[in-house]
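Methods — Computational structure assignment.
A single polypeptide chain was analysed. Its primary sequence is given first, followed by the predicted tertiary structure written as structure tokens.
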Amino acid sequence: MTDHQRVPEKYRGRTVMRRGQMQTSTTDQRLLDSRGPTDWVHTDPWRVLRIQSEFVEGFGGLAELGPAISVFGSARTRPDDPAYARAEAVGAGLARAGFAVITGGGPGVMEAANKGAGEAGGVSVGLGIELPFESGLNRYVDVGLNFRYFFARKTMFVKYAQGFVVLPGGFGTFDELFEALTLVQTQKVTSFPIVLLGVSYWQGLVDWVKGTVLADGKISAADLDMFRVTDDVDEAVAVMVEAREHRASSAPGGGESPGDTRRPD
């Protein structure tokens, strides 16, 4: 194609626009023109900056947190539910063992774990999420971050935790549990213990995994070793302490957070 036949085009950063997609105004002009519409703050390029800012804020806010365990469970758990008392006890036990406790910052199990950690003298962290039916961090959170995007928030749960304790919950809890199992299975994180706290609640799921998923060859028998099911709060805490000691005695990378640990080539 010769120069006189070349299709007219215009660049907007790295984006090339031609034909009907060419704009007559420039990015600077639209930025400085305060009379323009505000729809631009909801476009995908602007969302990228928001996403970036959530990672930056999360990394900055939690970088010096120290050893931590993420505790998950239902926001619908009432204070008179045995799971609430169990979550409070595990939060306290983890704090006494030298761990910060990270939750989703909401009510129910999250509130209980934050409460237990705070009252035991530990650091209580809440990572909130913007939802249409839940808002705000519970009053027991010492360090709180609010997120727009689930995937940014979920990164913080894993990067700054050395293990998960999972109490009875719904789809959100299942999401976190199975993501953690996937990361362990694919060795994206190492020395990362997962404890399911509440045998009567979790046993049906475990039986299905064994009787259907394993039996059908979709996972290996070794994958069942990635988690432990118990009713014993002390056992759950001991599992986390044991994994911490194992990391500290391993070289290279002993003591690093799971998200920073690399297997030798």
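Note: Strands lie at 9-12, 15-18, 68-72, 100-103, 124-129, 143-147, 164-166, 194-197, 227-230.
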